[in-house]
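Re: NDP structure - here you go.
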Amino acid sequence: MLQAPQRYLNFIGNELTPADSGETIAVVDPSNGETFASIPRSRAGDVGRAVHAARGAFEGAWGRFSAMERSRLLMRLAGLVDAHREELAQLESRDTGKPLKQGRADAQALSRYFEYYAGAADKLHGQTIPYQTGYTVLTVREPHGVTGHIIPWNYPMQIFGRSVAASLAVGNACVVKPAEDACLTLIRVAELAAEAGLPAGALNVVTGLGAEAGQALAEHPDVDHLSFTGSPETGRRVAQAGAQHHCPVTLELGGKSPQIVFDDADLQAALPVLVNAIIQNGGQTCSAGSRVLIQRGIHDALVEQLIERFSALRAGPAMADLDLGPLVSRRQLQRVWDYLSDAQASGLGFAAQGTVQDNAPSAGFYQAPVLLTRVPRDDRLFQEEIFGPVLVTTPFQDEHEALALANGTRYGLVAGVWTRDGARQMRMARAIRGGQVFINNYGAGGGVELPFGGVRASGHGREKGFEALYAFTNLKTIAIRHD
Ligand code: NDP
C-alpha cells in the first residue's frame, strides 16, 4: 500500500511550523526516485520569523547562559544524538542516498562535533596586553549574535555540526537553511536540541529553495555572521548579499584536490586511500581527492592497480550499503553525465568503470564509478569539480611539475602527498596552495579537531577545531586607565 508522504516542518522558536504560504517541496528518495516526504517551501517572511526568534533568544534566555552551562547543554545534545544515531543514520541515508555506513559515520561525527565544542565552550580565553603604565588592557571574545548557516546536501549532519556546534558553544543563536535535497535530519536534530534544554529560538531550521529561503537569510540585515558551504558561484552570491549589511562570511566552496604519488611512495598503503578519497559519498565531497598525480616511473603500474580496484566497485541503494549509493538528485546525476559525455567527446576513454547492482531501481540516480587516465592539465575534467565518482590521473616528471599541476586549478582546499622522502614532504607541504595537506594519508578520518577551509575559489575562513571559535566570535579590546 502506498504511504502518504511524511510532512516535515520548519523548527522555529522550538516549535514545528509550516511555511506561512503553506506550500511544500517534495522530498525524493534517490535510491528509487519516489517521493516519501515533504518540507516547507519557506520564503523571506518565514526566514524573518526565524531570525527574530534567534535575536530574542540571544538577547534573552540563551544569552544569559554561562559558558559552563552551554558546555553542559551541548554535551547533553551530543549524548542525545548518540542515542538516536541509528535513527539519524537511516533518515540521512534515505534522504541523500548515501550508503548506510556513511550515514552512520556522519551521525557519529555530528555527536563528536557537539562533544568537542562542548569541551571547548568554557576554554576560550581572552588575553591581557602589556601597555603603558597606568593601564590594564584585556581582550574578550564575544558572540556575534545571530549566525546564519547555509548547509549543502552532501554531508548535512557533518556540516551542520561543524558550524552550528561551534557557533552555539560561544553563545550565538543560529538560523539554519539546509539544502532542499537534504533537510530531514537537521529538523530532527533541532528537536533533540530542544530536548537537551536549548531555549526557544537559539536554534532554528528553515527549509526552502536556495534562491528564496537561502537568499533571504543571506540578505537579512539582522544576521551578524554567515557560514556557507557549497559552490563558488552561490558562495559569491551569498558573500555579495552579506556585504550589503557588512556581515562577515565564512565560505567553504569545494575543490579539485590532488593526491600526489611519488615513485618512492608506499603504494600498498596509498592505493586504498586513493580509491576511498573519491568513492566516499559517491565523490560528492568537497575535499574529495579527485585528481591523482603520478610520477611517470610508476604511472602505468599504479594505474593498473587502480583499474583493478575501480572495476570491482559497486553502486546500489543506500540501504544495500555497498561501496556507493545513488547520487543525491537527478540534477546532480545529470551534471556528472555532462562531464562524462564531454570526456568521451574529447577522446578520453574510460580506463575502468564499476557496476551498478542489477536489481537497483531503474528510477534511482545511479552512476557507477569511472576512472580516466592521462587527463591533460587544460581539460575540463582536470580543472573542474565534478562532484561525482569520477577520478582522473595525470603523470608528472618531477617535483617541480607535480607542484605546478597540484596548484594548477582555481581551487585550493586539500592535498595528499605520498613519498618517503622527509625533505620533499616538507617542501611540498609548504608549497601547495590550500588549507590542509596530508602526508602519507588523506583526510585523517574527518578530523573534527583539525582546522579546515580553503584559499582562492575554495573559499576563505576556517571551520572545525579551535579556529572555528575565533570565526564565530568578535574580539573586543578593553583598555582601563587606573593611575
Ligand atoms: P549550491 O552552492 O547552489 O548550494 C549550496 C547551498 O546553498 C544549498 O543549501 C542551497 O540551497 C543554497 N543556495 C542556493 N542558491 C542560493 C542563494 N541564491 N542564496 C543562498 N543560498 C543559496 O550548490 P548545488 O547544490 O547547486 O550544487 C552545485 C555544485 O556545487 C555541485 O556540483 C558541487 O560542485 C558544488 N557543491 C559543493 C559543496 C561543498 O561541500 N563544497 C556542497 C554542495 C555543492 P538549495 O539546495 O535548496 O538550492
